Structure formats: C-alpha cells, structure tokens
Amino acid sequence: MKHRILLLNFLCFSLLFGLSLTSRAQDRQTIVDPLTVSGTVGTQLTSSWNNADLHYNSPFSTSTYANMTFNVYGISIPMSVNLINVSAEQFTFPRPTFTINFRPIWKKFTFHFGTSAMNFSNYTYNGISFDGVGLEYKGDKFRFGGFYGNFNHATTFRTELDERDAIQFLSDSLLGMNNVAYTTFPQFKRKAYAAHIAVGSLRNYVDLSLLHAADDLNSLPPQWYMYNVYSSDVIDTTLFVRDSTIKGKENLALGLKGHFTIGKWVTFETNLGASLFTPDITRDEVVLEEGSNGAAVANNIIGGLRKSGLYNLRYGSEIRFAGDAMLNLNFSPVSTTFTYRFVQPDYTTLGANGFNQNSQTFGGNLSTSLFNNIAFLTLNGYLQRDNMDKKQLYTNQVGSYTVSWNNSFGESVALSILYNGVTQKQLDGVMVVPENTRINQITHSFDLSPSYTLSLNNDHTFSLNFNLLQNKNLNKQMEGMSFDVTTTSYGLGYDVYLTKSRLSLSANYDYSLSRSPGNNYNSHCLTGGTTYRFIKTENMLLSGNARLTVAYNIEKTEAEDLSDSERQALNYLARRIGAEVGTEMTNDLSLAARLGASLNYKDRHNASVYFSVSNYSDNIIIGQHVAVNTDVRLMVEYSYSFASRLIKSKKHK
Length: 653
Fold this sequence. Notes:
By secondary structure, the chain is mainly β.
C-alpha cells in the first residue's frame, strides 16, 4: 500500500503546485478572460440488421458526446463526455455506457481525471483506458507521467450465444417465450497504477516505465458467484467456484526505452520489457527451502517485494521478456531501416494488448526518390519464426517482401506498381513434420494502376487497374488440403465533376477470373455513384449522394481430369460447405444501394443521414453456406461545433 499512497500524494501535490503557480500567473496579467469554452457536441443513431450475423451486429445503438475545452485564467481544461447505448441482441432495450474525462493543461503539465489513457511502453502500458487520476509533465530534458485507477469494473458477462434469428426472437418475446438460459461469468474489478520517467532530449533519451495491475477478489457481490450448469434438459443452479472457474490475476511489468541519434544519418531505438505475471492470485505464496542454493537471497528478494506491497510471488507466477530494436540509416535520398523483435512464450502484461508470442521477427526497409522526386521506390521485407522455446510440435516460418513504385508524369499522368510476396513454411519442432502434410506455399500479388486526368471545362479522371494473385503450393507431396489458385482482375474507372451544375459522377467496372484445378469463378461488378450539391453558398452546403453496385458471379465446379491430391482437396472443401463434387454451375446476382445526405451550416451545424441495403448471394461464412445475405443499415448524425466563447470578462491590475 505504501507505493500507492506515495503515488496518490505525488499526484495531489503536483495538482496543488500547478494551481498555486496558476494563481500567481493570474496576478501578473493585466486583462484576463476568466472563462472561455469551445468544442463540439453531437449525437448519433445507428440501426442495422443482417440475417447472417445476428450476434455481432448491434441492431440499435445511440451515442451522445461532448468534446469541449474550458480555458480558466490561461489553464486549458479539455473535457469529453460520452453516453453510449448499445443493444446486445435483436429487439432488446439498450444498455447505457457513460464515460467522462477532464484533462486540464497548464504549460507543460497535463492532469487526467475520469476515463483517460496514456502510453508509456509497448511492453508495460500502451494506452488501455483507465478510470482514475493521472499526471504528465513534458519538458525539454525531463518528462514523467503516472496514473492510479481501474482497468475493469466488477460485472458479469454472457458466454452463450442465442442461435435464433431476429424474427423468431421477436415472436418468442411477444409470446413470453424469451427464456433462453445463459452461462454467466463474473469479471473482477482490476486496480492498476503505472508511471514512467524519461531523461534527455527527444533525439537522445532514456525512458523507464512500471506497471502494476491486480484483480480485486472482494469486488463481486455474492449473487454474482452463481452460474448455470447444463445437464440434459434440466438446468441446475450450482454455487460458483471462484478458484477453479475464473482466476484473479496480478502483473508487474518493467520497461526500458532508449533513443539515440548520431548526427543526421544514424538513429538507434530500443524497447525492452520484463513481465512478472500470476494467473491465479489465490494460490500460495512462494517460499524456498533454506537448504537450496541461493534460497536465502531469493527469499529476501521475495520477502522484500511482499513487504513493500509491490508484488506477491506465488506458485504459478512466471517472468517473461520481450523487446525490439530499430536502426535507421538516412543518407539522402536513400533511407534504410533494420528491425528486430522477440516476444517470449506466454509474455503477458495486463496493461498492453496481445502480442505475437513465442516468435522473433527480422525486418528491413529501403526507400528512395528518383529523377528529382518524380518517382519513389520502396522495398520492404521481413522474416518471422516462432517456437522460441523449442517446445512446439512444429515451427512456422513466414516471409514477406514488397516492392512499391510510384511515378508521376506532370500533373496529368500517374502510375503505381505494387508487388507483394508471402512464403509460408512448416519446419520441424519437437516432432518431424511428415512430408505429405508439410505446409510450403508462396503467394504472389502484382498490382498495376495507371491514371490520367484531363482538364477541359471540367476535370475528367480515367483510371485503370490490373491485379494478379497467385497462390502456389510448393509441396508436391501434400495430400488432400491444398491446390494452386490463380486470380486475375481488371478494372476501369471514370470520374468527372461538372462545376456549373454542381454534380459529380463516377463509374467503375471490375472483372475478375479465378482458376484452380477444381473450380472456375468469374465475377462482373459495375458500380455507379453521384453527388449533387443542392445548395452551395458561403454559409450553407447541402448535398446528396447515391451509390449502386451490381455484381454477377458465375461459378463452375469441375471434377474431371483431377489428380488424386486435387480431388481430395476438392472433397475437403466441398464437405465444409455441404456440397457434392461434380460438374455444376451457379449464377448469382448481388445488389447494394446506398443513399445519403449531408448538411453543413456556417461550419457549426453538421447533419447527415445514410441508408443502405445490400443483398449478397452464395456466401460462405465460417464454413457455413448462406444462400442469401441481406444487410440493412440506417445512420443519423448531428453535431454542433463552436469556437471560443467568452463566458465572462474581468479586468485585473
């Protein structure tokens, strides 16, 4: 507890110190505006329905927000308020979420109150929202920051999904049959504090960071320890077992960042992290036997951490390391960057998002300008391999390389060329990979996009696009899981803006052709759009837009003249979608329409409304064949922005 009290005292002292300096600054001013306010307030309503995505699409949601900045005697106080209502299921009442944030800014100090976020290190704390108080100071040679608050609130959440469609859900609700039981699990309140301190300029500095986060096992009311156990058609209520069903967690993470610059040509940056993580804080604390080597020293360290309240080391606790480094060489007009990153298995910090664990990555980048900045060339590549602990059954290796060329010929002609290659290979680990199942494939992607702009009475833009995508299996001994696929696509686009009639038009046509030994797939897609400015004056802009897309898909499955491995692969894919292998053809038509309007009045009032309907045929979603996928969406939005408003004026001498 001592370190938490010290952190709170530090934040409170800094706040009082800042306010005292502010009052002194006020006495020195001759004319002061005590209070001005500026910002934006608005609201948004969204409704959507999708027959193939009932649980991940919110059918109805509203949000009301206010982002304002108060200026009190020279102190800037940004404040944000958000009220979000989101319905979790079809045709249910929304659940409100309310957040508020005050961020007073005085000179180089920033204070945080309410729901806020900071960013200290990728491997300790990198921007997860907290509810609490915080302080930051950003000087030229010295910087620090810290906060104390909560990451999570004590609550419960459902783990079962309702499989009924929207119409069935509504009819069951009207008949009083909406009694589907859910399995509920609690979520503990998670308390956290973090701090960082940096010394040096922005060109050369060292930054240390620390994070501690732990779940509060006493934060849940007793009734939340109940959950449902399913047994045939009978639902029994059983007491929730805290130490076996959900675990309280604790984490202590340390980070070190460094940034060093040599002249104008060399920059080196490193970011290291160490995380001590306990997945279950109900387990016994670690005590080493005195007879073992180094037990006395280790027990003193463990006891010191426990007495300080910084961390309780328990059985099951693990320490893991992660880090990255970057070297940049800049010799104009060529710039080169080399990167390396490693993350040990099970590296976990409660203050950062997930990582690609148990892996290390090597990367490189080269960019240059050519022909007096007319053309730009960029080369990228990286190689990633996992199984750092040598305990996985197999090792996965992925390589990616990209070549990008952008060129302009005057103001009318532009050319973009992009190539990307990805290799995937499965290597040995604890076990030797069988040759007939080893993954070894390469994917090539080539994109060519020229465009031409013709300026007559109006601006006419013509664009072309060609894309080639080829996936090739390099393991000729693989059976029943993969075969080569080649896809080519061609596109033509035209855009024009008619100045006198305030009308813009666009049209695009795309054709794609996909070929594999067992399947041919052709797609024609035509898209047209228009925007019309009904009113365009100095104070008002009212415009409407419409967009229509028509796609016609032709799919032909051929099971003739296939090798045994290709036939097995086709059978595997056919089973996933419930189809039969044979010679058949399907023709499907998909439509999508979107209408919208927007209004801007005096750059203060902004309103918009959008409505869209789409109907896609013959989709495969998570291995399930969906014949028709219909999606309907409606969005209405309004916001009001105001510049600095003087609330009261007062003179001081």
